[in-house]
Amino acid sequence: MLSVVAPVFNEEGTVDELHRRLAAAVAPLGPYEIVIVDDGSADGTWERLRALAATDPNLRLVRLSRNFGHQIALTAGLDAARGDAVVCIDGDLQDPPEVIPQLVARWREGYDVVYGVRERREGETRFKLATAALFYKGINRMSPVEIPAQAGDFRLLSRRALDALREMPERARFLRGMTSWIGFRQIGVPYAREARFAGS
Predict the structure, then answer these.
(1) Which of 52, 83, 185, 187 could in theory staple to 1 by disulfide, Cβ–Cβ 3.0 to 4.6 A?
(2) Which residue, among 153, 161, 91, has the nearest Cα to 118 in the 3D structure?
């Protein structure tokens, strides 16, 4: 089974389209579940998610008691995922769900970590692009383990890679760095990052 984990925070205007596109992308791949983690939203996100879950048995929901932040919400989703492989994707639809079959194809070739590499980033300012480039240069200068440039949290983990990640006790979590650190066979898949679907 394939699990897809998506943390959301105040994404009332996005969750319907997120669910639609995720289901359309992964249904042809075999058995699946979609795990959406509501990270303490203050808008109508939870109500929209409950309405969607009432019509889709493949949709599982996790609701955090308050806003803990993206990395903790993603961790909660990874802990809840039951799949043989797990895809992490942000809930704002900047990372297109339609790329997931490419990640799964590389996993089926024997890779344990398949990460998306942003070739283009639509809707982002020059300042944002420059600070992102500086971030990767800085982090890789400080770290003995290289984190692939332009790779975010959009990635697939095999069950054994996820189990290794879950053994790490870090509380201040930086999952893309931790995923690089665990080793295993890893490969990137290029894609174009889209503009945010709705909201800010």
Answers:
(1) 83
(2) 153
